[in-house]
Amino acid sequence: MRRDEVEGAPGNIDEASIAELQGFMECGTLTSRKLVLHYMDRIATHDHGGAAINSVLELNPDALAIADALDVERSIKGTRGPLHGIPILLKDNIDTGDNMHTSAGSIALAESYAPEDSAVAARLREAGAVLLGKTNMTEWANFIAEDMPNGYSSRGGQVLNPYGPGQFDVGGSSSGSGAAVASSFAAAAIGTETSGSILSPASANSIVGIKPTVGLISRYGIIPISHSQDTAGPMAKSVADAAILLGVLTGVDERDPVTRTSVRGACRNYRQFLDPDGLNGARLGVLRPLHYKRLGPDQMAIFEQAMTVMAEAGAVIVDPVSLPEENGGGYEVLTYEFKAALNAYLRRLAPRVPVHTLAELIAYNEEHADVALRHGQALFERSAQVSGTLTEAAYIKTRLDDLRRSRERGIDYVLAEHHLDALLFPGNFGAALPAKAGYPSICVPGGYTPAGEPFGVTFTGGAYTEPALIRLAFAFERLTSCRRSPDSLK
Question: pTM higher than 0.90 for the full model?
Fold first, then answer.
């Protein structure tokens, strides 16, 4: 890499939006190649040197070649769309049918190459994005051990929060994606969520994370936990950038039947909902019992100030609202679904990969316990005890109860009862409720504690209400403009 190629790019790349980066490339002051080189240099300087954030697990060896090809295509045909030539990072549980591994952060899959692109990777490529690399993550999306630290994996080590390396929690399990976006190691990234895994690192790293309705984005080619709750989603510095990514990723995929439910709810252009006046007249409800007992006073102050800002912008804050029944945050359903989902994924891997079932994975970890089991595998072992056929009465009843309590006696009920446009949550507190319902949420930077720790504000709605949530989140973001880049990387 030649330093002059990096230095020949505009000086404000790090905080530039995707639209601004496209503008630079259109006027010829930037190329996709220069942008890739810039991010590579920044990763070398701050991710595997300097503050050692450790968020990028693997770089795509073909990234520069892809960027060069897209630059040529731009000069001949023009752009494919807003992501043309834009480098994007993907969480390490998202398959790419190329020269990068897909391992879920596990040494057991350290040499695993996916046989083909996931639906997410394929849509990004089609849109002209440069798949820059894979991000580190909480191993197996934090479904291996009961006390796994956020951001730790046996293959990649520990991800640090760029706002306080070694001081602040980085959030999980899309930890690397969150830290990498905050650190400007790519224009944006893709994370995945089963219960809080996009919202948590978005809040912790002062970025925007969208956990979409289950069904909006195909899960094909993503290492699973639960086919009832898993989803991929965008992680970016702004609501506008996240909206661009969301539109690219949506669509029906026959390999993932749930995406057929999105026919009436999906949209390919979410930028049309970026309304700076989106809070005016909105009714927002606050479910205090779900989170306030664990909320620190500094975080509470950020949330209270956020509500004040929204009210001053014309929103009606209904505080508190309550559910007709207590909604627990247990993971019983995931315990049953994980075995079936993981076995289905592992069976597709090449024979050279050492594990093809959950049982083989548990045995492999035991044989390599000094590296693989620093935090145990209690969740693996618990899931291994179930049938894997989803026929247990306990599973069926719990799943049906989760749906009832989270939907018709949960989010749907409280939205209708109080005529609400959305629910408000501090940070990722309360993430389990929309996770069980399969409903969308958007986390936006809310502010910083006196110690400098980021904390977000989350908007949650009913199925396929992403347009309304984007309106609300964008309006709040425009009013506060509170996001700042991490001091540790300056």
Answer: yes
